[in-house]
Design a protein that fits this description.
mainly alpha, globular, disordered N terminus
Length: 171
């Protein structure tokens, strides 16, 4: 193992293109740039853990608590990432309308698809779905509800849905 050899950064032309686009993000939307900050992923996971512990306070039973946790996360992230458009956390005059027709998901990393931020925000619901399915013992009603929410949130994150509005809703 030669430690002085340069590391190969990408394995395909698509990966190289993604890396190139990812590094061109100096003038990105500040509402999406914070996702690349140090500790952001850890903070997201800690918030999820705290929210799950909070829901555990209520005596709803395991299946209801886990399902509520997953559905709440799916609903909040769907509205925040895939429904609301524009610049939610900054003076709209600063963006001069550049982001007014884009959802937050479309603004993240200038729409470059396979960046670490987007990969993280896609894998979190997958892991949550698997954990929730396990702890609800795959009960039928819980699995139906969780699967519906999972499919909606994953399809919304899919590359083919970028800048698409189903039936003109949210145009």
């Amino acid at each position: 193992c030669n430690l002085n050899m340069p590391r190969k950064l990408s394995t395909s032309r698509t990966d190289a293109h993604t890396e190139l686009e990812f590094h061109k993000l100096e003038n990105s939307n500040p509402n999406a740039i914070w996702l690349r900050g140090p500790g952001t992923f850890l903070a997201y996971i800690v918030i999820l853990a705290i929210s799950r512990m909070f829901l555990g306070i209520f005596d709803w039973g395991s299946a209801v608590t886990w399902t509520t946790w997953f559905v709440a996360h799916a609903a909040i992230t769907f509205v925040a990432f895939h429904w609301r458009k524009g610049v939610p956390f900054e003076d709209p005059s600063m963006a001069q309308g550049k982001f007014s027709r884009m959802t937050w998901w479309e603004q993240i990393d200038n729409g470059v698809q396979y960046t670490p931020s987007r990969k993280f925000l896609t894998i979190v619901p997958v892991i949550m779905f698997l954990i929730t399915s396990h702890y609800t013992n795959h009960s039928a009603w819980s699995l139906i509800i969780n699967t519906f929410c999972f499919v909606v949130i994953i399809i919304a994150k899919a590359p083919f849905m970028n800048k698409k509005r189903i039936f003109g809703i949210n145009s």
